[in-house]
Amino acid sequence: KRNNGTFMVWAIVILFCVIGKIYLSYNADCEMFIDFPNLEKNFDHFLFGQHIARNVSISTLSRYWEQSLSTNHTRLKPFVFSFHGWTGVGKNFVTKLILNSLHVHHYKTYLVPNQFPSSNIQSYAKDISKSIRKHIRDCRFNVFIFDEMDKAPPSLIKGLKSVLTSLKNKEFDNQWIVFIFLSNSKGSEINSFLFSQIAKGRSREDLTHGEFLSVLHQESEKQWYHDIHDKNLIDVYVPFLPLNTTHIEYCIKQDLRRKKVVPSDGLVLKILHELSFFQPPGTPVQYSLTGCKRVSDKVDLHITSVD
């Protein structure tokens, strides 16, 4: 009788574990779908000067989603983006648009300098591994965002490499996971390549993803992503190009409209003149030093002064 009682206890425990796992994986708060038409519409309406980021993001996400549907999300390795470019050129904005179109309930953003501030804390490797695995156990659909990866300490890189390797080897049976790494790494090289091609008479829109991949991979042993790259853990590198005066005008007008203000030419010009630009040798237009990052604050100042 004692053996029968013990068996029943263990049977009940196992049953509750199974039910819990099913609930965590399939409850209403753990579902997702990708609204690709909405993603394309938002890119076309609100993203300026980033034809490569637009096209690559849509095409790669589409392929990953189709692959996941064909396998019913089983035995699927995570998909890893690495966004590169100067400040204010749209890396965070594209990430936000992707999240809005994914309709995923579970995502986690890590701001590297704030959450991993010290360069010599060895526990970061275990901490990040534990954090990621906890989120995956809670829900099979997850997006992990790491901002300012160029400031990542070695122990964080080590932990990410370890957990990405385990996930690539299908540690979890049923998963749909996207990682997005954002950094300023190679931003100056991306800019220099663009300027050199514009000086040769080429159109910005004619520059290809493949051309910028060469820039990103050149001397990558000096970059934070070298070890992760060597293990083939990053699926796609996305270059973000510097923004010129026309793109910044679009950003100003968009921000004014969002704040219910008519974007008159005079107001747009005033705001534009308060931002910093430079003109590379041989190029016909000026480029912003801060992209669209400071636009919203400048717009607020002018709206307040008008009020």
From TrEMBL:
Keywords: Membrane, Transmembrane, Transmembrane helix
Keyword Membrane appears in the UniProt entry: yes
Any one GO biological process: cellular response to misfolded protein
Family matches, as Gene3D superfamilies: P-loop containing nucleotide triphosphate hydrolases
Keyword check for Acetylation: no
Segments traversing the membrane: 7-26
Gene Ontology CC: one annotated term: endomembrane system
Gene Ontology molecular function terms on file: ATP binding; ATP hydrolysis activity
Similarity comment: family membership: Belongs to the ClpA/ClpB family. Torsin subfamily.
Name of this chain's protein: Torsin-1B
Source species of the chain: Magallana gigas
